[in-house]
Design a protein that fits this description.
With 97 residues, the protein is an alpha+beta fold. The chain has a single domain, classed as 2-Layer Sandwich (Alpha-Beta Plaits). Strands 4-1-3-2-5 form a five-stranded mixed β-sheet. Helix 1 runs antiparallel to helix 2. The N and C termini lie far apart (27 Å).
Length: 97
Amino acid sequence: MSDSSTDDRTRAHVFVSGKVQGVYYRANTRDTAREKGVDGWVQNLSDGRVEAVFEGPEPTVEEMVEWCHTGSPAADVDDVNVEYGTPEGEDGFRIRR
């Protein structure tokens, strides 16, 4: 990222419910986030949801949150719950296991 200013960066903490495990949701999230240059992570939760954190420029983070409503082609998303906060300095995007 050429702009070193952190003023325009935001953090979105997302919980996605529905048929989102076993459908390559995490891999697709990672690939999409990396394509857009968004930092953070994604992981499966024991209750069947997927949890993710996106950090980056506000418009790009918004695109990722919107993307979560559809997710991977095989996913069937019921709900996306998002909380916004101050970036915590995530660097790169990874799948947490």
